[in-house]
Amino acid sequence: MKGLQYESQKVLSASPMELILMLYDGGLRSLEWALDAFGEPDELKRMQAINTHLLKAQSYITELACSLDIEQGGEMARSIEQIYEFMINHLINANTSGSRKPVEEVRSMLADLRDGWRQAMDALPRDQTPEPVAVERTSSFNFSG
Known about the structure:
The chain is mainly α.
């Protein structure tokens, strides 16, 4: 219970940029767990674990896509949106085919985007953070993985 309270407090006190970083980290964590699940010797347990973790990774990537401001971000935001769409489709393919390679490819792409986001965060002066943007939410999202 304390872990959940800690995660909730962490999310509530995070800046908008930190929230995006948390989504990247959650997606990467889910992909790592999916990759680990490929080693499960029991086929049913393996497929269930892979499915669970890939669906969770897709949820993180979907949240990242929903966080894009296409109007403000212009062509770059549209390009990133297409990358997220590719990732989700690649993970669907991995889930239906039971293939590890697409998961590894998405993990690599997501890690690159995460590193770029981290560099952008580090480049901003500490006292300059973007203003939060109001986003209409249709559901709640659980960062705890």
